[in-house]
Structure formats: C-alpha cells, structure tokens
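REQUEST
  id: r-88c1
  op: predict_structure
  target: Cyclopentadecanone 1,2-monooxygenase
  payload:
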Amino acid sequence: MSQLIQEPAEAGVTSQKVSFDHVALREKYRQERDKRLRQDGQEQYLEVAVTCDEYLKDPYADPIVRDPVVRETDVFIIGGGFGGLLAAVRLQQAGVSDYVMVERAGDYGGTWYWNRYPGAQCDIESYVYMPLLEEMGYIPTEKYAFGTEILEYSRSIGRKFGLYERTYFQTEVKDLSWDDEAARWRITTDRGDKFSARFVCMSTGPLQRPKLPGIPGITSFKGHSFHTSRWDYSYTGGDQTGNLEGLKDKRVAIIGTGATSIQAVPHLAAYAQELYVIQRTPISVGFRGNKPTDPEWAKSLQPGWQQARMDNFNAITHGMPVDVDLVQDSWTKIFGEIGVFLGSDGSRAQMVDFQLMEQIRARVDQEVKDPATAESLKPYYNIMCKRPGFHDSYLPSFNKPNVTLVDTQGAGVERITEKGLVVNGREYEVDCLIYATGFEYQTKLSRRNGYEIHGRNGQPLSDKWKDGLSTLWGYHIRDFPNCFILGNGQSAVTPNFTHMLNEAGKHVAYVVKHCLDERVDVFEPTAEAEQAWVDHVMSFAGIKQQYDRECTPSYYNNEGQVNDVALTRNNFYPGGAVAFINILREWREKGDFAQFQQRKR
Ligand code: NDP
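RESPONSE
  id: r-88c1
  status: 200
  body:
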C-alpha cells in the first residue's frame, strides 16, 4: 500500500444523520449548475490528435519491429484490455480456438496500460473488479489494488491462456470492411497487415481517447506538459508508487479534479516545489479505507465466490434488496441508501442524496484546515451527476504549504500562456502543466478509435449513426453482420465495469459458437429487433433526462445537453445492468434467434 494512504477514523460516508434545509440546498445546486452550463457542451473539448498528437505517444514501450501479416481467422478481437481478454478467454472456454487480437499499446491492460500516473488505483473493490480470479487462482493483495498489480494481472491472463502468441501489439486498425459475398470482415492496419475474419469483436474502451480542454492558447505553453494517461516519469522522476523527485524544484499545475486527479494530487503535493490544483467543479470524495487482503478470509472462500460477490455488488448498486452486503464499501453504502436513480422513489431518493452529500461536504470541513479552501472543495450536486471519487489523502493535501487550490468557480481556465495559465485574470507561472482532463465519451466512434467501420455496401458506421446509435443490446448492428461492439452505448453499465465486460464476453462466445456449429455465415439483427431495442432504450429517456437536467454538467449528462436526441440515443441502457444481464441470459437459455437474420452456408 502507498505510504500516502492514511486511515481516517470517522471520515466520509457515515450513517450519521445531518440536518439541512432542502429548499435552500436545491436552490444552491441550481445556482452551481448554472455557473457551469455552457452552450458548446461536448464541443468545448479539443481532439487530441489534432491539437497535440505528442500527447498520444506511448511513453512505456520500445517500438516493436515486425513484417506485415496476411492472415485468416474466425474471430478478430480489437483491444487487449479486460474486454478483449475476457472475450478471448470466454471464446476459448467455448471451444473457439481460432482468433487473433490486436492492440494499439505495447502490452495488455487497456486503461491500466495507459493510466500509469502515480497513485493509479482501482476504486472498485479488486475482489469484484479483477476478473477471472478463480480461473487464475489469484487473490489481489489489497481491497483496492493499485495499477501496477492490475497491469501485471492482465499480463498474467495473457500468459495463462496463451494469448500472447496470437496478439499483435503496437498495431492500429485502419479500416474494417464487410465483404458480404465472402461473408468476411477485411481488416487493414497501420503495419500493412491484411486480416480476414468471420467475426469482429471490438472492445476499444469507452474512455480511451484523452481529451483536451478548448482553452485559448493551449498550444502556446513553452514549459513541459502531458496528459495523465501518458505520464512522463522521465520528467517527474519516480514511478506509480510516487517518489517524484524530479519535481522538487518545479512549479506544477494540474488541470482537472476528476477521479484521476484525486489519486495523483497527493503524490504531486508530496514532491512538487509548488502545486496548483486547477478546479472547475469539485468532486465528491468519499471514504476509501483500503486494507491488505486478510489471508484467513482468502482461505475461507468457496468455489463460485467471485461471481456471487460480483452479483451481490451489482444488485446493491442497482438498489435491489439483498440479505448481506459482501463488499461493504462507500459504493454499496451510497447505493444501498439511495437506490439506483431509476425505479426509486424520486423525492425519497433526493432526500437521501442530500443527506449523503451533506456528509461528503462535512468531511471536507473535517479534513481541510483553511475554511475558504474547504468551501471551494465542497460539491453541490446530486451524487451521481458526476463520477463519485473515493480517497483518503486527497483532501489533506490542501493543508500543505506548497499546495494551492485554484478555484475557477465553474468557469475553467481562462487562457494558457507561454509561461503558465490564467484564472480569474491572474497568471500562474509554472514549469509543468498536467492535463487531468479526462477522455472523450460518446464522441464519434471513428474519431475515438481512429478507423471507420464499413458495413454492407460500404456504408460507414458513422453514417448509419449520424442521428445517434442504433443497435440491438448495444452489441449488434443491422447491416454490420458478425460484428460485436462492446461499448456502453445502448448497453448496460454498472460501477463495476468488468462485470459487464464479462457478460459481453460470454455473449460473444455463445453467438460465435452457435454460428460455427450451425454453419451460420452471416448473423445480424433484424431491422425490427434493432428498432424495438432503440425504442425500448428511448422509453427511459424522460426519466434519465429529468435526473440529468438538475445536474451540473459532466460526461454523465452529455455535458448538460440533456435534450439532444442523438446524444440521448447514445446513452447507456437506463433499465440497469441487472435487467440487461437477465435479458441476455434468458435469451441464451431459450435459444430463440427470432431477433436475428441468419444466412447459412
Ligand atoms: P474526468 O472527465 O472525470 O475529469 C476531467 C476534469 O477536467 C474535470 O475535473 C473537469 O472539470 C476538468 N476540466 C475539463 N475542462 C476544463 C477546463 N477548461 N478548465 C478546468 N478544468 C477542466 O476525467 P478523469 O480522468 O479524472 O476520469 C475519467 C474517468 O475515468 C472517471 O470518470 C472514471 O470513470 C475513470 N477512472 C476510474 C478510476 C477507478 O479507480 N476506477 C480512477 C480514475 C479514473 P469539470 O468537472 O468541471 O468538467
């Protein structure tokens, strides 16, 4: 465990009740939201490849030299993060052995490959987050594992299941085109490879493309800069555990206070000569309470324990009644009290939400000595308006004399100059600027992935989706046969992201096995089934919009553009992951393919 993690006694979300004036609070929430609302929504962000493609370079691996490949395969998997790994393992377990993987990075790990900033840690309990623990015979060392352990674990999945032999790293897909006559996907890459595959499975991650804020002057800074997903240890010194010795004589600014920033800030605060934390909207910081794994507990686990624990966590985070809370952390505490926002009683949930957020705000007062700084760090919005954060060392960082919170009052950075940045008319001169500004979400898939997908008759997917997504279950697309898209759009999400990836892997394996066994060459949803799913997803839109409308902008609510129909269609399935998993399970059990059109050999 990092030495920076402290164990505060009564901090964070507690069941202690606090009193509040809910009318005044609601008004305060609206005022804070209105400060942040902007007309340009998602357009406020810049495409990193256009603004500064240096920020995309891989600082972690030496270039691989290899000749182009020409290869036929049954399944072509794009992405070597947990989604791709789970698809590969589930295929293998179903008896499908002819598949290859490509991955842009130099190794497996996906988000854990790229996000190696100091303090990177999974804030979902590792016993439910790290997949395949029973198959791997592995128990994470801590309740919340750090990035290095998760990255190494990803590699060990690759080794155990023999995936390295069929993976092409540092390889970017350039085009995917469906050849209807041959019933094959034709795939080209930046390495000059030519693959041909019966099926394509894309698991490229919903938050994989770094995004940059559209701050005037962003390219004019003459100091050192990078995005948190490409941490430059050659400049900062140290590694993921900290020890950023290179910053001892440096003035550093970190822009953004999201889930990433709160993990990195304590390490920057420990080493930088001067640290400016540039905040637009405060994040909610709940109690973490990390601890080493108890070996006695690990020994007591019975077969099937991980799926049971995952299901228990999933049920609680969907507001469903359970006999026991196995994970017992801030996530289950929040959702256990509040219920998921859909399907729960609105006014009751709102009162519980106020209560929880009052506790979050009270924690700031407990942890931060300077009252003005504490006030600035308090979030005024409903808890699921933004990704909640959990940390025990972030707030105390602001008690250090070298750390300054720069509160932009919702306006963001005014300008970037050659020497630093300007907020509220004041210039802060720095040596190093770190962008903790997050990732593109629900922008065009081709923009995020860097390639287009051409379906039947050469139709680009961007064209089919110009008015928003159209899919069956988020995975299948009419006129793009034999192609699985494992993303969030029109599919379910849950705080434990790998839970859904595991379900997706099982689904892919089931469909591919069925097609290979039944000699089905072309498999796609009927137009009616696809439309019915889109209609079903959209039938929840009103409820979600109602919640989102009250929210401060974030990628959770389309940056405040709540009424945009196309963006609403791109949203996740609001019926919840429990219902979604049941839909898929029942479909598999029935073995009824009425929603699909199948062309046999
Ligand atoms: P986020 O998108 O959550 O945060 C970006 C930050 O940049 C926000 O604080 C945002 O402010 C700020 N920002 C954007 N534009 C400007 C501007 N013009 N001026 C000033 N500030 C600006 O990105 P993160 O990388 O923190 O997190 C992304 C996601 O990654 C998380 O939501 C989570 O899903 C995942 N993650 C998960 C972790 C885990 O442990 N499982 C750990 C880390 C990340 P504002 O809030 O006002 O928009």
